[in-house]
Amino acid sequence: MTAFDTLPLRPELLSNLNTLGYTSMTPIQAEALPSVLQGKDVIAQAKTGSGKTAAFGLGLLHRLEVERFCIQSLVLCPTRELADQVAGEIRRLARGMHNVKVLTLCGGQPFGPQAQSLEHGAHIIVGTPGRIDDHLRKGNLQLAQVNLLVLDEADRMLDMGFQDTLDAIVEQLPKARQTLLFSATFPEKIASLSARLLREPERITVESAH
Ligand code: ADP
Ligand code: MG
Q: CATH number of the domain at 27-205, please?
């Protein structure tokens, strides 16, 4: 069991983790966070419930420049339910920081209000590939300042047929970025996706859930 305060995390994140009752890191967090905080690309494989959200959520909050009001991180999830969960967890983790704006963009919800929210801006976008691609095509979404991309549950996104959509989205991102890929399984198509999208990734596998 490793305490979070062994990491070079910003103090407001550490004190909020304390408030949330997150005393020690889960195994995937302990394995992944040091590399994530160093800005490395990471492929992490671990079961559901192992704390993957904080493994990338703390990484993106740590590197966020709150005073620079533009989209700096993009998190792609397979479904609206998962995107809502991830956005909720990032908001909880961000409580110690002031005015971090997290916006969800998912299908099955009206388009207009999302476009309006985008006009007001955000630091972090969490959403499903189809809807994010729609907003990109309509010119509602500017991703030129994104320096961190997260593919959460990447195996499920590929199972759902999002491969071409993921490629289309990534084409709109700066090449100089950090990319983190999380997956419960590691089939061949994940290997080829990561070969296309990640650079010299560190590969981390955690077998047990806790
Ligand atoms: P995964 O994405 O791997 O399925 P989650 O990120 O959703 O897992 O985390 C599962 C649960 O564990 C969540 O309720 C989360 O708040 C909690 N959790 C995550 N990390 C910690 C930690 N270090 N200490 C205590 N609880 C944690
Ligand atoms: Mg998860």
A: 3.40.50.300
